[in-house]
Amino acid sequence: EKSKLNRLKDTRATTLDGENVNLLANIEGPKDLPQVKAVGSDGVGLYRTEFLFIGRDTLPDEDEQYEAYRAVLKAMPSKPVTIRTFDVGADKALNGNQGRNEPNPALGLRAVRYSLAEPKMFMTQLRALLRASAHGRLQIMVPMLAHAHEIDQCLTLIEKAKTELRAEKVKFNEAVPVGGMIEVPAAALSLGMFIRRLSFLSIGTNDLIQYTLAIDRSDESVVHLYDPLHPAVLKLISGTIQAGVRFGVPVSVCGEMAGDPAYTELLLGMGLRNFSMHPAHILGVKQQVLRADVGELAPRVQRILKMDEPARVREAVERLGS
Ligand code: PEP
Ligand code: MG
User: Fold this and answer.
1) Which ligand has its closest atom nearest to the C-alpha of 209?
2) For residue 93, what pLDDT is reported?
3) Which residues cross the membrane (predicted)?
4) For residues 145 and 127, what is the distance between their CA atoms, to the nearest angstrom?
């Protein structure tokens, strides 16, 4: 089965009815590149940059970050590489941060909140990202956005970094796309303010499920309640994909759901065309895409979205794949 899948490496992920689908990789750093290349990924959909310094005591400086980002871009010539700004806090704690003793880390100073609270650290990362943008198709992505003013502050800091680099005569891509993650329910319910400000969206189902269902994703005692098929979760995901289609803004899913072949037909039927996942899942998902007919799936998925009885939803989703 594995070698059969390997033969799909250079096959374009196109559905039976001719829809092109992009299968991108989630990575934690340049160390993952050999695996990304081995499966013929269409690019990097999520580079989790916090892994550059988790478990160390000092932050990587601008040059060290630049080298890591550039290495990924160089390895993926002409393919999109979406690099996410630091998503620290909660399940990705910084060494020096453990003493902070937050009452509720998942709801605390994490991700973009942390970056905006540490503008010096954030500016260092933004400068490194912009410098790397000269070497490929870099896109910058911001995690955990909920408020319009958070996006505006990020865009202002990016402009500030650009102004600095211009003054220093350092090359970068003036038109580097800036996107945001949709992983807080409030964001999925107020998409207009995201679409007006950003070039692309990526749905982080891991956190979106955690926050929609009010279950800590790292708490073993509630894992049985972590349900990607909860009707509320499905509404938020499909609403985001559909808004992207309607307004012509690219949307991807980069949470674990994108890499689970049990959900491939469901997401295709919702209109999703960009899936980002651990590289180990790319060929299995590609096999599902090659067997799918989205023209046939879309109306069936519309009916699933109207169901609110979990057992029926589950059964109908299982039938999509058969
Ligand atoms: C997500 O939340 O779905 C996601 C992709 O980000 P992370 O798992 O790194 O929080
Ligand atoms: Mg997340």
Assistant:
1) 1
2) 67
3) none
4) 20
